[in-house]
Design goal:
globular, 6-stranded antiparallel beta sheet, 34% strand, 1 helix, mainly beta, 6 strands
């Protein structure tokens, strides 16, 4: 019998191997699209998540230059559909397994 953690662990392993750009756009299965920025995104493995899903989190861009802090957003591995670099290049899932186009949020 397969553990419910296994598919999410595969996602965690793949994301752990990425060469992360300083900004990404994350698309979710529920239709959201969010930008994350920073030199350190946080990956929580399924084994460390009480729901055994795991998630990716990162800082959101400031809404105004005077804002002192960025907000933080997170996406569960279960809801994560795709990750794009600032130039629109898809970096996850690996392009040979998913749609190749992306509309920029700019």
């Amino acid at each position: 019998m397969k553990s419910s953690i296994e598919p999410n662990q595969r996602v965690f392993n793949e994301l752990s191997e990425l060469d992360w750009p300083p900004e990404i756009t994350v698309e979710t299965h529920d239709g959201r699209s969010e930008r994350m920025i920073g030199d350190g995104y946080c990956l929580v493995p399924p084994g460390d998540d009480p729901e055994e899903i795991g998630y990716l989190s990162g800082a959101m861009p400031k809404k105004h230059p005077r804002n002192q802090f960025n907000g933080v957003t997170s996406v569960s591995f279960k809801n994560l559909k795709a990750i794009f670099a600032p130039d629109g290049r898809q970096i996850w899932p690996f392009p040979d397994r998913s749609p190749k186009s992306h509309k920029s949020l700019k």
